[in-house]
Write the structure tokens for this entry.
Amino acid sequence: MTTVNASPREVFPVHYKTVRVKEQDVFYREAGSQSAPVLLLLHGFPTSSNMFRNLIPRLAPSFRVIAPDYPGFGMSSMPDHKSFAYTFENLTNIVEGFVTALGLSKYSLYVMDYGAPIGYRLALRQPDRVQALVVQNGNAYDEGLLKFWEPIKAYWASPTQANREALYFLVEQKATQWQYENGVADKTLLDPTTWIVDQVGLDRAGNRDIQMDLFLSYGSNVPLYPDFQAFFRKYQPPTLIVWGKNDFIFPPEGAAPYSRDLKSVETHLLDTGHFALETHGEEIGSRIEGFLTKQKF
């Protein structure tokens, strides 16, 4: 009897780098072959590229995986909010400059939370570069902004100091931990260092004002939803949706409408919360690999 051994998957180390973009240091994680299809990972609030720490090595044998930190997050620069505009338009300027600095002519986008409006704004600017989308609790439809958003919508409607201060609780440790735990049945699957690391970033002097500016700026994304949807209809990027269905922040009502505008869309609602990678990382990684490999970029 002969034994046939399966070929081992090639292992790619994760590199931790910084590139200068528009006078800011942009920290990023990268792994995979330089010749492989590019997957650009765009993180959400209140985290950083750290949310992709397990996904990057999982996908590196198949893709060139790149995950930047936005200014004010993770290990990137954190200029004072009085000297740097913390708006989604400006964060997109940074990500666009980052893409240019790395010479990325084609890429797929993994968008989550804040990463969705940043990624979709980028797609409006560079539509021919976007090969596919992976959407994980990232909104582009009015149906997805439900109860969680009520105090934030009040701030959009009336950006007073009182309404700003009413959102301070969202950058406190209790709220950060809640984002990871809410909607998760087995909390022993969660690594508590995730919210500890995020909270260290939020607790830096001046960061609360940065986050409040971004809460206000998030309102500027909503009028762009029709433009995002028009991009979907015109360019029809193949789209994989892997969505934590128990998410209170971006509930599954925001996942369903994508199928109105996209012809090639595959949707998986996962029994977990906002940070679906923490509990369903292997499933998400496997689905991404299978879905994007089928596209034959």
User: Anything to note?
Assistant: The chain has eleven helices and eight strands. The longest strand covers residues 24-31. Residues 26 and 45 are 17 Å apart (CA to CA). The mean pLDDT is 96.
